[in-house]
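Sample intake sheet
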Amino acid sequence: MEKGILIIGGGELQIPGLKKAKELGFTTYLLDGSENCVAREYADFFYCVDINDLGGAAKVAKQLKSEGKIIAVYTQGHDVAYTVAYAAKEAGLPGIDPEAALNCKSKIRMRHILSGAGVENVRFATAKNLQEVEEAVKDVGFPCYVKPADSWACKGITKITSEDQLEQAFNLALSFCNFTKEVLIEEELKGEEYSVDTVLYQGKLYPAGVSDRIFLPKEKYAVHIGSRTPSLLPESVQSAMYEKMDKAAKVLGVTDGAFKGDLLVDEEGNVRILEVTARTSGGFDSQLRKPYSFGMDILKATIDIACGLPLDPVDLVPKWVKWSSTISVIHDSGIIVDIQGAEELKNIRGVRDVYFRSKIGDRVKPLVHSAARTNQIISSADTLEDLLKIEDKIQETLIIKTRPITTTGINGFGRFGLHLLRYWLDRKNSANFEINYINDNFLSIEDALSIINNDSYVSFKDYKVSILQSNLVFSDSDAAKVTIEYTNKLKDQIPWVGKPNIFLECSGKNNIAKDCEKYILDNTKLVVISATSWDAKNLIYGFNHLEYNKDMKVISYGSCTVNSYVPLTNYINKKYGVLESDANFVHSVPNYKLKDFNTMNRKFCTLEKSGPNLLDFINKNNFTVNYTVVPYDGVSMLDFRFKLTNNVSKEQVLEDLKRAFKEGELKNLYLFQDSDKGPEEHKFTTHSAVFIEDNVRMLNNNLYLHGYFDNENSTNRYFDLVNYVSTKAESTSVPKRINWIGNLVKQS
């Protein structure tokens, strides 16, 4: 049998585990739900399966075992012990009982078992709906914490002090549940927190180090931003922690492998259990820092046990005592606009490892849980005094500047709003704005969910979409969640008016600027109309969008035909001169309107009026538009003719246009395709138009361009315009300086 190991979870914490497995001579097989997980490049083979897909993981494990390729299923630092245990059992490989793993995975089961066995006596209750939460807090009391049943890294946890915080806390916790849609309500335990690593072998517990955990002030969220090893706790208290961990392991049924606890020493000096789980600690604590501080090899010890090999106790015997820490430089949420000192960090004596999760241009969410940190820096030193000096130097060196993320709300969830939502979701991590609200005066939230799940043209197959109270919740393959408040009100009764920074008017029924000015209220400073408006400033992306200024209250993005024609025509005029032009469109209709269209129809096109308004070299005497709507729901067709002032060859025009499309002022707006492969080739194109090179003609100084445009997806230029105006937010913010005080920190 080949010496191979299946590792579950592909985040950055898994990288040391993959390296250790290779060092021990294993062929590594990595399983994760994201094709782009950061640990993938360190594995020999990769399987794209969600880490919470028990059946999928088990199928991979059984297949690899039957082929003689693996002898173990393993994880460390990732909260997937239940998946590991289940897959190992199904494949007939060593591992703990899946029920024992689930006892740890489920905070609710853990609390019931620990309480029933007398190991821990925290006041707690559980709830599946808001009414049950309201009843639960009467028993638990304030302040208390509302937690998801089975999340990790403090995700979805909120501290509440009054009843008016219940609904928001409940919705947040429920959105982070994985296997069980239920929340845990716990009394607040006051004291300092510690991370306790242990390893079990045949039921015997071996200590593997205690670290002091460092948190931001726990005003609403518990955000762990660092830790230090060894702990400053007296040996007697650390021994009491190990005794408590041993009791917990026995009653939960954990007999072998890593067993990690988040423990607290309360104000009376008692050791209390916050959480325990059947894995190693995160924060690079067990992966890097325990080895730096003590010379232990927790990863080798736990890999041996996962393989069914005997534990070598020497792996867990301290060889020395040094100081180490993991810290994160804290900054505001928003768009990262500058990172200074990243390379200089590596030259600081004592800095051992630097991990970044974000880069310039990325959106950074508010720091409401530990996984939202953008950086982790691991250091070591011979003395605590030297370590503290290194930590100070890190904060002086690494400067991460951000600017606020613009908030928006959509009014109108028809074809345009649907496309815009999907287009933004696919780009949410790099967009300068977020969609926080949606209103539609006709569609209920259930109607909206049905359209999202069943639309024949716009697919949301990459997302799991659900309703949570009055919110639509979108979860992607990386387990990232987007929650959008949905309302079903008339345009004059929208309850969130004044809350977002930008109001996105996408109903197609409210295109008069004066009527839209009523939405300029409180936080809302701008309305962007998704259709041509005759009394608003029309800003066409790639043509005149740079004219935007903060004095503008209502703007329009133009239309699909305007965006397909105006920037290109402006470029051609600047390059060769345009004496006259024709624009011919064969325009499709949405699928739901086909029943009303049984013949082609010549209609007015907004470009007929907008074109001359925007371009001063065309007018009713040298410019015509033919706009024909046909009973067809696919990609639309266009033909442009330009009579040029300058005498130029077809070859020169093609060369100039290709350069402009690829790297010039028309970059990302237009595209050339070699030959005509039909309209459906260009469904969901991100370009305003795609032209067919084979069909380009030059006749008597007339340039003819033939191509396609997906009018259903013309939201691409609307998105670009909103994305641009969102960059005009106020000034940037700099990192928060942290004063380290015991296990808590103060911001200055």
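Comment: Residues 232 and 622 are 83 Å apart (CA to CA). The longest strand covers residues 204-215.
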